[in-house]
Specification:
The chain has two domains: 54 residues; 87 residues. Helices cover 70% and strands 0% of the residues. The protein is built from eight helices and no strands.
C-alpha cells in the first residue's frame, strides 16, 4: 500500500511551520534580557510575544506621539555638552538621526548639516565658518560632512 502523497506533503508543511515557529520564538526570547524574559514568559508563540513586546515598548498612539514630540525637541535643542568629546557628539548625532528616521521625522540634509555645525564647540568656529563658505559643502551628504570634521 502506497502512502498518500497529499498526506505526506501536509505533514511536511506542518513540520516546517512548526520548526519555523520554534526558531522565531527562540530568537525573540534569546534576545530578551533575563528580567524581560520573566515578564513575557507566558507567551508560547512568536506572533503573540512580538505583539506584546511592541505594545510594551512602542505604546499606544498617545505615547508614540509623545515620543515623536520628544525626539523633535531633542533635534531642535541639539547642542554640544561641556566636556563632551567630538566622538561622543558625533555618536549622539547619528543616534538622533536614527531616532528621527524611526519616527518618520524628515529634515533636509542642509538643515541637518547646519544643526551639526551649530552644535560643534566654540573651538571649531573657524572650521565651521570655512565649511559654510565652501560652495560644495551643501552638495555633501550629512555623513560626508561629518566625516570632514
Amino acid at each position: 500500500m502506497k502512502p498518500c502523497p497529499n498526506l505526506y506533503l501536509s505533514f511536511l508543511t506542518k513540520k516546517r511551520t512548526y520548526d519555523r515557529e520554534k526558531k522565531a520564538l527562540g530568537s525573540i526570547t534569546m534576545a530578551l534580557t533575563r528580567e524581560l524574559f520573566h515578564s513575557f514568559r507566558g507567551y508560547d508563540n512568536s506572533k503573540d510575544l512580538w505583539k506584546a513586546l511592541q505594545k510594551k515598548f512602542e505604546g499606544n498612539s498617545d505615547i508614540k506621539k509623545s515620543k515623536r514630540d520628544l525626539i523633535r525637541k531633542q533635534y531642535e535643542c541639539f547642542r554640544f555638552f561641556e566636556n563632551e568629546s567630538l566622538d561622543d557628539l558625533i555618536s549622539r548625532f547619528y543616534h538622533l538621526q536614527t531616532e528621527l528616521k524611526d519616527f518618520e521625522l524628515r529634515y533636509p540634509d542642509e538643515e541637518m548639516m547646519e544643526k551639526f555645525l551649530d552644535a560643534l564647540p566654540p573651538k571649531f568656529e573657524m572650521y565651521t565658518t570655512l565649511m559654510r563658505e565652501n560652495l560644495k559643502f551643501y552638495e555633501l551628504t550629512v555623513e560626508e560632512a561629518i566625516g570632514k570634521v
